[in-house]
Amino acid sequence: MTPIADLKSSFRPQMMPILMFIAMLFVSWRRWTSLIVDIGRETDLPLRLLNGEMLYRDIHYTYTPFSPYFNAALYWLFGVHIDTLAASGIVFSAILLLLCYRIFRQLMPAAETAIAVSFILVLCVFKPAGNLILPYSFGALHAAVFALASLLFVLRHWETRKKRELIIAGIFIGFAAIAKQEFGFAGAVTVFAYVVYLHGTNFRRLFLDLFLSGIPALAIVIPVFVVLFANIDPNVLINDCHLFYTNIPESLVYYNRFRSGLDHPFASFIQMIGAAFLSVGLAGAIVLLSDRTGKLRARLLALVAISAGIVATILFFFIGKWDGSPLRAVPFLLLAIILAEWRRKLLSPNGSAAPTQGGYNGTRFVIAIFSLAILIRIILRVPSGGFSGSFYLPTSLGLIMLALLVFLPEAVRKWTGDESSFARARFITRTISVTVVIALGISFGYRYRSKYVYRIDTPRGTVFVEKHTGPALDEAQQFILANTDREEWIAVLPEGSDLAFLTARKINLRHQVFVPAFLSQQDELAAIAALEKDNVRYIFIVNRAMREFGSVAFGTDFYQTLGSWINENYEVVDVFGESNDPNSQIGKSPFFIKAHRRR
């Protein structure tokens, strides 16, 4: 055997995502955050809990409590350092990928599964605009892992029918629920749909399986909320922190409507139609290239031409609104799989038979149900991974790869009756997929290395940030280190408490992120009282516009009471960044941070 042949025979498909994970980790090393947005909450909040403050009562938080206390435990065990959280993110990201591999290995051969996991790795774990190493929400990362674990054990029950699999699935649903609410919801919906699919109208068995998974979940969730309600004013939990999605501020409604596509539902739906026709056109082109018999040429040419025309028309009318991503059509694919598998089961001679009988596939049905449930928040505007998609897309991406790498070649075999056409289709789909994964990996790697180039060394870790924000951030942290005592109280508004964390200073404000409409007039007065009580000498105002929440400038467009009090009692002593103009306005370039000192 030649050395090349020997190397080929020893190569396992599983190595592709492993090697890509190591490569992407290397090129992105310590380039996982831009600082300011969200990361301050994730870094500083666990430290405040470790120092004795209580979540919700002393620190405002809108998610369930697992992740802040878990990260506080990590600080206690491994030290208060940004690398502690990064290491945790690396571990949980690796677990997420392993779970995805185990889930999709039940549907695809090893090579196809490795390609699917590599797509998830690139678009979800390492996409620069929202990676999972230092995510915008560790709660979402932890909950995504727990929810995927619950899905895996539901699938194991489909294979084995062992009761313990549903019990374990329920345990992970409970953990998902106390990490981030909607992931627990997706897990619960999946189990419910699964047992209905499995048992139909056999209500005795249906309720027994729901009981097996529901009791462990409730045994985790209920004690947590009992402790919370026993120690914290229920009004704080329900109406102030919105743990049950009650009394939602208008700014958050605005944000969620935009993310979900419900701000312009008709336009969003038309873009989904365009994405569907784009997918059909691409699939038609692949079949056209694969067909060695020529039987399908005329129909496929017409299909591709019609699809291209529809896509071009929608792009023309929605220019700038749709980026042309076919992922917008993912809900259609999921619904198609769900309905197809349900129909196969209904037409099966024995609907409750073993998994391989009757031509239906419960594994595909369950994964599709989970994928659709987890996409509810972004249902009409599914992104291509990144900030608003990384946590929600893994299983959907796996099903897309199943359709491309397995369903499509099999369809070519069926339509043409030709094995060589099937082989060519499989070669083309694999080649396209691997090429896209590698191209995205190279593109994202280049983006990490070209965009995150400014190094900032701090007492609690080193980070590389964007070159247009780096100088201001570095100057601000140097100013804090030079002009304040260690662990002195400072304030960073409207967001950016990571500056306090990285410089080992403290924040005494209950709200770490001043999102528009989250604070009442009484909350603003409470913030003023806290600043006065602890004699906070320095307040730092960051050029952080809040456009995604419907407002722009802190102190001008929102929270004017607090902004006016700062202007009356503090003076600008320095401006960090490209411009040192003290009159620089939030929302306008360039990026700046203003240092205000108490008069």
Structural notes for this entry:
This protein is of the alpha/beta class and 599 residues long. The chain contains 22 helices and seven strands. The strands form two sheets. Strands 4-3-5-7-6 form a five-stranded mixed sheet. Helix 9 packs antiparallel against helix 16 (362-374), helix 13 runs antiparallel to helix 14 (297-317) and helix 16 (362-374) packs across helix 17. The longest helix is centred in the last third of the chain and has 33 residues, at 419-451. The radius of gyration is 26 Å and the shape is globular. The N and C termini lie far apart (81 Å).
Keywords:
599 residues, five-stranded mixed beta sheet, two-stranded antiparallel ribbon, 7 strands, disordered N terminus
Mean pLDDT: 92
What level of helicity do the residues show? 55-70%
Low-confidence stretches: 3-10, 352-359
Strand content: 5-15%
Rg on CA atoms, Å: 26 Å
Total helix count? 22
Number of strands: 7
Structural class: alpha/beta
Secondary-structure topology with pairs:
Layout: H1 3-10, H2 15-27, H3 39-50, H4 66-78, H5 82-104, H6 110-125, H7 138-160, H8 163-179, H9 181-199, H10 203-231, H11 234-240, H12 250-260, H13 265-290, H14 297-317, H15 330-347, H16 362-374, H17 394-416, H18 419-451, E1 452-458, E2 461-466, H19 470-483, E3 489-493, H20 498-502, E4 506-507, H21 521-533, E5 538-542, H22 560-569, E6 570-577, E7 592-598
Parallel strand pairs: 3-4, 3-5
Antiparallel strand pairs: 1-2, 5-7, 6-7
